[in-house]
Amino acid sequence: MGKYELWLDESGDFEKDLIGKEVPSLVGGFLCSAGSINKEAANKILAQARMKTPSIPKWVHSTDIKGKKYGVFAIEVLQQLVSQDMKLVIFENQEKLKVVNSDVTYIHILSEGIVQLFQTLAMEEEEMDLHIIAANRMKATDNYKSKILNDEYKQRLQEKLELSFARRNLTSNKWRWKFSLASARIDERLMLTDVICHSWFRRGGNKFIEEQKNQIKNLYKNNYHFTAFEKATLKVIQRQLAEGQIGEALYEVLIMENESLATNRETKKVITDVELDQSLDSIIILIIKRLKLLPDFAQTTHLSIVTNRLKTLINLHRDFNKAQKILNKVKVVIIPKLQKYDIENNLFIFNINLMIFTSATHQGNIKLSDKQLNENKKYLNNLAKRWESLNLVMDFLVRESVHLINVYDFKEVIIKMDKLQKFIDSTIELFPLAFKDELSLYSNKMNSDIRGKVLGTRLQARYFLSREEPNQIQLARLDSEEAIKEFIDESDLSRQYQYRSQIECEDKEYIAAIWWLGKSVDINESCIEPLFLLEKLLLSSQRLFGIMHFSRIMSEAALSGNIELANSLYKSWVKANVSSLIIKDYKDNHPYEIILWKLGSYLMINGDTKAAIEKYKLAIDICFTHKEHLTMRSIGLVILTEMTSFLFKQEKHYKKANIELKILIDKYEIFIKEVDSPSVKKYFDSWDKELQSIKTLSNKDKSEKLFKLSRVIGY
């Protein structure tokens, strides 16, 4: 695995690129192996270069160094860097792209450059960690300049990277990155990046003599010179249409936002939102008219480009909010226009509705899931008549069962998946009979991803049902064994191993749970060191879910009285700095609430009530962030119930416990009124009576009853 650092600065003025400067602005610096250069080493390079030009100041800012002396100094710095195997990297704004303002433009250039850099490094390394350290940037507000915050950039960079990966249909599972800002005034490594950027920016100017200009050409290698091509702009969409790239053009329209480039390149005039909407509408109509000229099979091919890019956003990057916005744009804007021009592509419409359904189930949005379930059923019969659509139909049936898990209808999931498994098994059994003279085409055992998904979905239903019917846990274990046999893809197997870890944890087989969790990150040792496991989980593509399972084992072990194991796991948690790496930047979506909840459980059992309440509260806040995410809210009720039950165990917290009990009852009453799903109402049917009866009990009995209620959901 390759571990790299990318040190970056910028040169030029992104704000002025649009008005026709002769040299485009750029982001650049050097790429090196992680930890291969410290501040002292960087200072040594600068000091040695100053020996040839003593008048160069200690704190290097290339723009302030005038005349030919800069060229002498810069060449010496660049040569030393290259001699130490540092790669000089340039992300250039060659098309003089401007996206709203310099900050957004900078993020665009940076994200496009990083994706291209990853692709270059992937030729040698399959798995990579990249730490990007960039010089602080300033923003002007009300005539006051302030540093742009690290978190602000990380969020915007994450969004842009996901769109860039999706645009190329790339998976970033093994390409991990982190981003931080630092000051060039106190870190000599960023002074080196300043020299790299400014030297390339001014390579044709009078700071360099002719010989030095030739040297620069040789020092900067083409492999690490990247251009951020213009994307999501009216001009590029028009260019794609001219080249017949209809699917690509439609995708670019969909991801274009009003904050994307909205500039007339000829007049240099920024287009207003109204003008942009009008331009987009005319472009969409033009795209659809071009699509209409194609035969049906070609229309399907171009529309599949859009669906594949959107699937990448949902399945690989799990950016449900971004995907939901784009999918709604397809549903509200694109599909009606397709139908207006008599393009009735049921496969495309079904795919879009299925993706909205998928995104809604991931978010626990029950009302939207119900709506999309009915939308998809309108197209189901026609699609089911075609063999080619059979896999898509079965995917829908599996997704329907995921929705049923969200609404706590576990028994119905088992019934549906039983039927679907029988259908798949019967179909697979027919192949050897139908092709008895061509048996060489088929092995004795045919693997099936869809069969694995069916078994994986059923085992989850059995897992959740096991708290009501304990015998289901062994049936879930058997489903797990069968599901694992079906998959070949590494990410699918990893997910199944984590499901198995969850099953073993529920059955209080904590060592087995740790073993299966280790297997999900390629640890095959019989005895797994928790710290090593955590380190591997933190590097994995699905690290949040891995950490979730680890935190559950830690919490459940503590709850069941296995304190020694729980303490050992928590000790490793602290050593691996998990709370800082994961929880510090928590988001309002699954599985952060589970991680925080389970950490709170462990801390409460371990006697750190203050820290436990803090974690519980964060988890509860996540669950109640979105009113429409009813499944999350139901989890929030359970977390609040568990916290309150523990508070009633401590005399000094009785007052707080009673306050939390009132909050719990209020939240439950609001929740149950807003739930339309009969199965959810049935699942929580006993809560109303139980919560009301709790008021008259002793504090000890309140604690016991609340804790029992908190165990109804096995997350």
Task: Please write out the topology.
Blueprint: E1 2-11, E2 26-33, H1 39-50, H2 68-83, E3 87-92, H3 102-121, E4 128-135, E5 138-141, E6 144-147, H4 150-167, E7 175-182, H5 188-201, H6 210-219, E8 225-227, H7 234-242, H8 246-255, E9 263-264, E10 269-270, H9 273-292, H10 296-316, H11 320-340, H12 346-363, H13 366-384, H14 390-406, H15 410-434, H16 449-465, H17 472-486, H18 490-506, H19 510-519, H20 530-539, H21 543-559, H22 563-575, H23 578-583, H24 592-605, H25 609-623, H26 630-647, H27 654-674, H28 678-683, H29 687-694, H30 699-710
Parallel strand pairs: 1-4, 3-8, 4-7
Antiparallel strand pairs: 1-2, 2-3, 5-6, 9-10
Helix pairs in contact: 1-2, 1-5, 2-5, 2-6, 3-4, 4-10, 7-8, 7-9, 8-9, 8-10, 10-12, 11-12, 12-13, 12-14, 13-14, 14-15, 14-16, 15-16, 16-17, 16-18, 17-18, 18-19, 18-21, 19-21, 20-21, 21-22, 21-24, 24-25, 24-26, 25-26, 26-27, 26-30, 29-30
The poorly predicted ranges are: 140-147, 258-273
**What's the CATH C level of the domain at 2-227?**
Alpha Beta
Give the helix level as a range of percent: 55-70%
C-alpha-based Rg, rounded? 29 Å
Name the shape in a single word: globular
**Percent of residues in beta strands:** 5-15%
From the N-terminal CA to the C-terminal CA, the straight-line distance is: 33 Å
Q: Total number of helical segments?
A: 30
Number of E strands:
10
Quick one: biggest sheet?
A: 6 strands, mixed
The CATH level-2 architecture of the domain at 2-227 is identified as: 2-Layer Sandwich
Query: How are the strands of the biggest sheet laid out side by side?
Result: 7-4-1-2-3-8
Protein name: DUF3800 domain-containing protein
